[in-house]
Amino acid sequence: MPEDDEQQPVAVVRPEDLGWDDSLYDDTPAAGGAGRDRDDAPQRADRPEQAEGAAGPAALPAGNGSASETSGESDTSGADGDSAGDRPATGGSAGGDGTGTGGTDAADGDGGDGPTPSGRQRRPRWARVLIAGSAALALAVVGAGGAGWYYVQHLNGNLTKSDLHLGDNKLDKAAPNDRGQTPLNILLLGSDARDSEENLRLGGAADTVGGPPIADVQMLLHVSADRSNMTVVSIPRDTRVTIPKCTDPATGREFDMVESDTINHSLQRGGPGCSVATWEELTGIPIDHFMMLDFAGVVSMADAVGGVPVCVDRGVDDPKSHLKLEAGETVIKGEQALQWLRTRHGFGDGSDVGRTKAQHMYLSSMVRELKEGARLTDPGKLNALANAATNALTVDPDLGSVNRLYDLGEDLRDVPSERINMITMPWVPAPQNPAAHVAPKPGAAEELFALVRNDIALDEEYPDDIAEAGEDTDADEDAAQAREPAEVAVTVRNGTGSVSLPAITGRASVVVAELAALGYVQSHVDERPISQAETSLTHPTGDQAEADARAVAAALGLPDRALRSSASAEAFTLVIGVDWREGNQFPAAPDAGPSEPEERLDSAEAITADDDSACMVVNPLHATD
């Protein structure tokens, strides 16, 4: 019996917790017997038949079906094992506090070692989305060669579309800069959907077919207003967050707000639009578009690109992912690309940190390949790439045409590779389940989000108070002025309790009394229980509400990172977090002086896409030379 079964004998095993090829990751009877609750979310619409390799209309140029044909010819295994005996379920640790290199997806997995909500191993997740950000760029490359009207219509038909925002908390779009330029925020999602034979072959157990998918990979692609730089922020899939109320557009089903759940489950609550709403709730960053990729999309895109060069410092043979490479550089594609992206044990010390570096290396290399166009000069390959890119993607309606994707690709193509920064949200073990889940690292995570909100590149110098960096220091005479305190009602909730700390009794009443003394006489206590690491003040959208919220924050000494604008908020709600367990004023941060970005974002080391010298360090236990 696997070790994690011994630790949690009564755990309910869910196939969604087992990995891509679920049947290969556990040899216990329970592994295959638990299906998903198919009522949790609707199935995603089936893709057009072109996705299975059909050539499309007869009038189309030759080659527009070759992507799927190529993937069908691959003779390598897309699973992380050939039998149940190859993939025993194993336990794992929390992966530290998120500090150090990468600090990425603490929940990343190749079906290998790392806990999940049920106590089982984590599963692979980056592989399904690493190519999604390159898809629009790929279409720009294709578009540069020209395409007939019928072919464009064919590509448009390949795309699957879904509503952008399903929550009741939609943020206003980012404001333009002084030159009228507006930043662009795109959420990239990797789905574990098993809604086709190809996805089932690559993704696993038959008992999960048709079940609601989850978003195991989630990255935000932020393109600066002047299109000079790009920041890619990833969030571990087991990060505990608030998932706002969402409504399924297909069925009308309403999913109530969840105070704390892992972010990957947001996709099950109506579709990708709920993941968008969840990101906006967490980060305060308005999202303009989303792009979602599934299992088969990774293989078809990797094949169509013609391969991506990667490097290992020694020969590697990883029995978990089946990755076998000689030392030095190798061009990988198709299912071999999946093996690279899901390899954990073969790299570094066998932890998620090494795997994350390998995934970032792959994405950086693919970006360089697309920009250089080294493998994209043949019209047939261009058509195959366009077919693969459009078949692989689910997008929001505003991004749901080849022309729109082409325009986006043009924007992405203009960004220099050395200005493309990839980073993971700083995280710490979540108090609710520190062995399996993570939480945004207090202070550091909000600092990263503030950088993106204020359109500040990670490779630029920035001030110590990030949250104020994008503000105009000259008062605008037309700006809204805060109302008198007596006109502003603040609801106060006590969130000072955690798994390791009991809530401070009467804490909300103490702060209400302080607010009343400051003139906010309409303030009152909300007795509903809640637990929250960081203190927050949520307010309605609009200039007046923001001015009032800033006045309340100033009166209590709250930092700017505590402010949260929400379209669903009808009043001001102050949640007192674990970081404010005593005192009438929020505790001032110790004056440690300005610090370097590497110190302030210590668990989120960034890399740039122009680094072509990187070579993965192979774990000696899996080296072949």
Write a concise keyword list for the protein shown above.
alpha/beta, Aminopeptidase, 2 domains, 23 strands
Can you describe this structure?
Keywords: Membrane, Transmembrane, Transmembrane helix. Residues 1-124 are annotated as: Disordered. There is one protein chain. The chain contains 16 helices and 23 strands. It is of the alpha/beta class. The chain folds into two domains: 3-458 and 614-622, Aminopeptidase (3-Layer(aba) Sandwich), CATH 3.40.630.190; 485-576, Alpha-Beta Plaits. The strands form seven sheets. An eight-stranded mixed β-sheet has the order 1-14-9-2-3-4-15-23, sandwiched between helices. The longest helix has 21 residues, at 352-372. The protein starts with a helix and ends in a 17-residue tail after the last strand. The model is unreliable at 1-133, 139-147, 199-208, 463-477 and 590-603 (pLDDT under 50).
In short:
The chain has helices at residues 3-7, 29-33, 66-73, 132-144, 149-158, 197-203, 272-283, 295-305, 334-342, 352-372, 379-392, 402-413, 444-453, 507-517, 543-556, 597-600, and strands spanning 160-161, 184-191, 215-223, 230-234, 240-243, 246-247, 254-255, 258-262, 289-293, 308-312, 316-318, 323-325, 328-332, 393-395, 420-424, 427-429, 438-440, 490-494, 524-526, 536-539, 563-565, 572-576, 607-608. By secondary structure, it is α/β, with parallel strands linked by helices. The strands form seven sheets. It has an eight-stranded mixed sheet with strand order 1-14-9-2-3-4-15-23, with helices on both faces. Strands 19-18-22-20-21 form a five-stranded mixed sheet, covered by helices on one side.
